[in-house]
Structure formats: C-alpha cells, structure tokens
Specification:
Blueprint (H helix, E strand, L loop, with lengths): L18 H16 L25 E5 L2 E5 L21 E5 L8 E7 L4 E8 L1 E5 L3 E3 L13 E3 L4 E12 L3 E8 L10 E4 L3 E12 L3 E8 L4 E15 L1
Antiparallel strand pairs: 1-2, 3-4, 4-5, 5-14, 6-14, 7-14, 8-13, 9-12, 9-14, 10-11, 10-13
C-alpha cells in the first residue's frame, strides 16, 4: 500500500495548532481504511484467519482454483443403515447393512451419477454356511434336509454369487440355486464328477431383483453327499 501524503495536514511553523487540519487528517485516515480491499493487501501480509470474514456456521475455509472460500465441509463417514439414502448425489457414500446393531454383512457403496447405481467399494459380503453333511439321490434340483445355504438380496442390482461345498461322490453331483421363484438351472451350477473334495464357483448375475437365492442339488445317479456348503454374495452395483 503506498505511503500517505500528509503534507496537507501539517501545521506550518507560523500557524497555531489547527483543529480543522486535525479533523481533516482523522477523516483522511478513516477514508483510507475504508478503501482497503484485497488488491491493496500485500501477498506477504500473512493476515490471521481470525481476522477474515466469517463464513456460515459449520463452514470450513478451503480453496477453489487457488482462491480461499468458505464452504460446507466434505461428507464424513456415513452412518450404517438398512436402507439406501433417498435422492442421492454423485459421489455420495453409504454403508448398507442387514442390522445396525449386529450386522452379518456390511457394504460401503458410492453413488454413480452416470449409471444412477450404488457401486460397491468394499466391505463384508453376505455369507451363509451349512456344515451338516446331508445327501440326495434326486435327479432334479431339490433342497437337502437343511435348506440352503441361502441369502436374501436387500436391493435389486448386479451381484457376484459364489457357491461352494465339500462333496463326497463316486459319480456326479450338482449344486445350483433358485433365484426367488425361478428354479435352479445348470447354467449356474457347480459340478463335482467322481471328485471328492472342496469345490466352488462364482458367477456375475445381472439385473436381479430383491429376492432370496437358495441352493439346490441334484445327482446324475446314485446317492451323494454335500457338507460345509456355503454361499457368498457380493454386490457390484445396486439400487
């Protein structure tokens, strides 16, 4: 800021003290202060943040294109909920759970404004396991004595569905799953053929509705056993 010209306000040696000149000097100082704007503040002035114009309550000081501005703070970690948020915006985060007090699965999701879907970022997949060894001789898909494993899809969308089991066989056993009221089909099956041991298979299933997936079993011939059978479900994009 340039130095002020105070010559006009000085009292000459042949003058007595002048209240008028003093008053004019005070007014000139006030005018100079009122005229200060951003262009007159030195870049090296290091003005304290406490002296800046206040923003709205809860706002934070940030920068946009290198310019300091007051803005609402970035969203923090969302609160887990059993339903997805309504009217989401692009980039919004959500944590979807089956229970807020004792969740068995928990999915961190981000809303994509282009696909208008919630995309999976991470978390604990849905999982169900039945350890009991049970057998079937049915040549069409049926439930074993303990139905399942199974998983209820909470929201429509695309999911990775993985099934697995230890099979005790001397021929062929198949494991597939009902999709709601649609019966199990071979396209989704896991097959063990004269091969006792652990087996698994994952398939990406698109366009599913909010239904329950329930494992079913069939054999080609004879009686065969499944134990430690499980289903793992991971969302891809939902909503």
């Amino acid at each position: 800021m340039p130095a002020a010209d105070l010559q006009a306000y000085k009292v000459a040696s042949n003058e007595s003290s002048s209240s008028t000149k003093f008053d004019n000097f005070v007014q000139a100082c006030q005018d100079a202060i009122n005229a200060i704007d951003d262009s007159k503040v030195s870049a090296g002035a290091a003005i304290a943040v406490s002296k800046l114009a206040a923003g709205s309550n809860t706002n934070v000081l940030t920068t946009t294109a290198g310019v300091p501005v007051w803005a609402a703070p970035a969203a923090g970690i969302p609160t887990p909920a059993t339903t997805l948020p309504g009217s989401p915006t692009a980039g919004q985060l959500a944590i979807l759970v089956d229970s807020t007090s004792a969740p068995t699965w928990s999915w961190l999701l981000i809303y994509n404004g282009t696909t208008t879907k919630w995309h999976y970022l991470g978390g604990t997949p849905g999982f169900h396991e039945i350890a009991t060894a049970e057998s079937t001789s049915s040549t069409t898909y049926v439930a074993l004595a303990t139905a399942g494993p199974l998983f209820a899809l909470p929201v429509a969308g695309d999911y990775d569905v993985e099934i697995g089991s230890k099979f005790i066989v001397n021929n062929t056993i198949n494991m597939s799953y009902d999709i709601g009221g649609t019966g199990a089909v071979d396209a989704d099956r896991l097959t063990a053929n004269n091969n006792t041991g652990q087996h698994s298979r994952v398939r990406r299933k698109t366009g599913l509705t909010a239904v329950t997936l329930t494992a079913k079993y069939k054999v080609d011939t004879g009686t065969h056993t499944a134990e430690n059978r499980w289903m793992r479900v991971t969302p891809v994009k939902i909503g």
